[in-house]
Amino acid sequence: MDTIDKLPKRVLKQLPRQLNYLMNSCENFDEGQHEESVRIAVTLRTLFHDTKKSTSLLKLLGIKNDIKIASTCRPTKVVKQHQYFAHDPLTYLDEKKKMKPILATKEEAWFIPVIDWWEKYAIVILVPGVCVSRKAIVLAAANRDGGTHVGEYTDEYEYLDQGFWQSGNSWYNEHQFILLRQLAFEVINSPDIRNLSDYCKKIS
């Protein structure tokens, strides 16, 4: 925490602010505004994504390599294909056959390093060999689906947006929105993130 104590207040106040953005977006989503997931993607990009020209908030705070994020799916390595994937689905069909994020319906969670959570483990296997990470979904929503820019969808994002058949012969599109809601749930319910946010709020 010594490094964090030396940061400007303008930086310290950002983590509580970003978590508040996430919680507000989740509330709107749960009220039926599923397109609010694109705003979730923008916030997640702010927290986690580093480029040559921009630095993630967690890296600015100096803790990106030290904290762990909750994963509501068990991360599993497929040694043969040298791929990683999420062992459990992050969505389910409710009693009305509507697609929903699992949220806390499954009590167990795995706490994994940021880099693993963000890009190493895929959360969707569209077809054999096509695995999609949290990072891929977040960046496509933020950069191509109107979060900050509008552009051509990636093939994976297009597939999620157009939808696919599920049990009961029902068609579900915009599957990425449901997944993004679950990712927000994971971040909000990560003790390392919550504790750090409380500390930043205390000293800012």
What does this 3D model show about the protein?
The protein has ten helices and ten strands. With 204 residues, it is α+β, with helices and mostly antiparallel strands. It has one domain (2-203). The strands form five sheets. The chain has a two-stranded antiparallel ribbon. It is globular. The two termini are 13 Å apart. Residues 78-87 have low confidence and may be disordered.
Shape: globular
Low-confidence stretches: 78-87
How large is the count of helical segments? Answer: 10
In round numbers, the mean pLDDT is 86
Major beta sheet, specifics?
2 strands, antiparallel
**Helix and strand element order:** HHHHHEEEEEEHEEHHEEHH
Lay out the secondary structure:
Elements (H helix, E strand, L loop, with lengths): L1 H4 L3 H4 L1 H17 L6 H12 L8 H4 L7 E4 L3 E4 L4 E4 L4 E3 L5 E3 L8 E4 H7 L1 E6 L2 E4 H11 L10 H8 L1 E3 L3 E3 L2 H14 L2 H13 L1
Antiparallel strand pairs: 1-6, 2-3, 4-5, 7-8, 9-10
Helix pairs in contact: 3-4, 3-9, 3-10, 4-7, 4-9, 7-9
